[in-house]
Write a structure and sequence with these properties.
Length: about 250
């Protein structure tokens, strides 16, 4: 990973933050993107303290101008883009289908699906010129199974996995690999919000056959591996990092 250039969206908390630290510890130059200036600048300083180069870019992945600028500024700063981790996401509004609406759909799909689509569009644009690159989209084990009370979120993650596989086939001959990492229940703020209702908490407890939740650092290790040269013949793959959740 020495001197590789890594761009991570949704990098300020949870899995995105853990991935940024993991890449920095392995010698990569890291660009972290998010919507909160103070937190982003603080994270960049933390990464520099690990001995690497790091920058923060304020970007909202729902807006193409932001995404285009995010990618172009990364290349302007470091000269290339080797690895992109599309982690920005939202749990939306977990609730029964009878309580969903066009607004709740848009609020979830604009970040989880459109954000990934726009990010990949501009990341691929740069990587095709280089003739190399690795993209990792963050899905969920709900990207290939169902969950009561989470139809919109589940649908968005199914879309992410379908887009991942399709783009992997499109760009394979360009020297670009595209994969996804699907975390199981992981101890993050998003999970806390998702289980805020007794119904969702009970549903999750019934599905998790584990003694504990996963850690962001464990998911980050999977992200680093599948994006690295150690996985050079892996593309179009969905890597479960779930402690056996989907094997249950």
């Amino acid at each position: 990973m020495d001197n590789s250039v890594v761009l991570i969206t949704g990098a300020l908390t949870g899995i995105g933050r853990a991935a940024a630290v993991a890449f920095a510890k392995r010698g990569a130059n890291v660009v972290v993107a998010g919507r909160r200036d103070e937190a982003g600048k603080s994270l960049a300083e933390e990464l520099r303290a690990l001995g690497t180069e790091a920058e923060f870019i304020n970007a909202d992945v729902r807006h193409e101008d932001d995404v285009r600028t995010m990618v172009d500024e990364t290349v302007a700063r470091f000269g290339r883009l080797d690895i992109a981790v599309n982690n920005a996401g939202t749990e939306g509004r977990p609730s029964p289908i009878t309580e969903q609406s066009a607004d709740t759909y848009n609020a979830t799909f604009d970040t989880n699906v459109l954000g990934v689509l726009l990010s990949m569009k501009h990341q691929v644009r740069v990587m095709q010129e280089q003739g190399t690159g690795s993209i990792v989209n963050i899905s969920s084990t709900y990207g290939h199974e169902g969950a009561a009370g989470a139809s919109v979120y589940v649908g968005s993650k199914h879309a992410v996995e379908g887009i991942t596989k399709s783009v992997a086939l499109e760009v394979a001959s360009s020297g670009i690999r595209v994969n996804a990492v699907a975390p199981g229940p992981t101890d993050t703020g998003m999970l806390t919000r998702f289980t805020a209702t007794p119904e969702n908490k009970a549903a999750l407890a019934s599905e998790v056959p584990l003694a504990r939740l996963g850690l962001s650092e464990e998911v980050a290790a999977g992200i680093v591996f599948i994006s690295s040269p150690d996985a050079s013949y892996v593309t179009g793959h969905i890597l479960n990092v779930d402690g056996g959740h989907t094997a249950n």
